[in-house]
Design brief:
binds NADP nicotinamide-adenine-dinucleotide phosphate, binds flavin-adenine dinucleotide, 285 residues, alpha/beta, 22% helix
């Protein structure tokens, strides 16, 4: 079902072309998950350091300005979906049909160039949380991307006894990238060796859909308010003594969860002032 851009020549995939654009990196893999979602991997500058969960600006050259005859880079914020130790960079992207960037980006192929401004920033980082026992990741849509990074970050399992990842999407197919990534952790020899055999047993995965039938229907916020999510997961509601959380979704989702967290007694943290939870928008508006 998932269309994977064929790599007919394995050597070509590992021997990137010399970049010609400013700050350009070379695409090494593209996977299309639905007609609205795709992921891709590209080369990583040797000097680039980042913390799992951060985002960068990436993009393509824009159209030629008819007045000046010049082209400018068209850049957008993107969470890095790969962990900090990965030799390559992975991204998980929406396809907005009339979106200035993604109307073009969705057509990239192995060997193409993507512009990367290697200045990672963001609040969804371990440094912005104080120590706790259980870590919650709350995502809608492509808001899963920073958690794709943090779920492959050894520190996540070193710092916490339990990790709960909730992902709410409209349709079941939009959960596939996240579900396959989580399933793949079980057989990840490197992570099992580095973190410890069976580290993935700490994960509780709670995917829900709102507009298409699936095993669990409903917005995570409503499922928490009714108590159903906590019953299903076999955990108590969030508590400042034990629980830490990261939120990445649309603005209304982020605000609704923030209100709920204040009621639970959790305080928002930042890089400069670590606390109980942190929030980042999955997209503007
Ligand atoms: C901190 C941050 C991190 C981000 N990380 C990612 C990421 O990892 N993956 C990703 O796909 N996008 C991410 N985005 C959104 C991204 O920056 C662009 O908006 C997106 O790539 C679309 O670009 P565009 O130029 O095609 O359309 P834009 O003009 O940027 O957006 C057009 C419209 O499409 C909708 N839209 C934009 N992005 C999304 C989205 N991700 N999901 C659903 N609807 C959307 C919005 O309604 C928006 O008004 C992030 C945004 C921020 C602020
Ligand atoms: N996903 C699609 O199939 C689709 C198709 C065409 C166009 N679009 C457009 O693309 C844009 C983004 O769509 P998207 O589906 O990626 O993202 P989205 O609208 O942010 O929805 C993602 C998920 O978050 C849920 N959600 C929204 N607000 C919430 C809140 N306050 N609390 C809890 N959960 C909340 C949604 O539930 P609800 O369903 O209950 O809102 C949905 O399951 C929208 O403008 C949309 O019109 C989407």
């Amino acid at each position: 079902m998932n269309e994977i851009t064929p790599v007919t020549n394995a050597a070509a995939a590992v021997a990137p072309k010399t970049p010609t654009l400013p700050d350009a990196q070379t695409v090494t893999e593209v996977k299309h998950w639905t007609d609205r979602l795709f992921s891709f991997r590209m080369t990583r500058p040797a000097s680039m350091r980042f913390r799992s969960g951060e985002f960068v600006m990436i993009g393509l050259m824009g159209d030629v300005n008819p007045k000046t005859g010049k082209q400018k880079p068209l850049l957008r914020a993107y969470s890095i979906a790969s962990p900090s130790w990965d030799e390559e960079l992975e991204f998980y992207s929406i396809k907005v049909q009339d979106g200035p960037l993604t109307s073009k980006l969705q057509h990239i192929k192995v060997g193409d160039e993507v512009i990367l401004r290697p200045k990672p920033v963001g609040t969804l980082v371990h440094d912005a949380l104080i120590p706790g026992k259980r870590l919650w990741f709350f995502a809608t849509g492509t808001g899963f991307a920073p958690f794709a990074s943090l779920l492959r970050e050894p520190q996540t399992y070193e710092d916490y006894d339990e990790i709960v990842i909730t992902h709410t999407c409209r349709e079941a197919g939009e959960l596939t990238y996240g579900r396959e990534l989580i399933e793949s952790l079980k057989d990840d020899e490197l992570l099992n060796e580095v973190i410890g055999e069976g580290f993935w047993k700490k994960i509780k995965y709670y995917p829900t859909t709102t507009r298409e039938e699936s095993a669990k229907m409903g917005r995570i916020t409503d499922l928490m308010k009714s108590g159903e999510a906590f019953k299903d997961l076999g955990v108590e509601p969030l508590n400042p003594d034990t629980d830490r959380a990261m939120i990445c979704g649309n603005l209304a989702f982020n605000l609704e969860l923030k209100d709920m967290f204040e009621e639970y007694g959790l305080e928002e943290g930042a890089n400069s002032k670590p606390a109980h939870y942190v929030v980042e928008k999955a997209f503007l508006d």
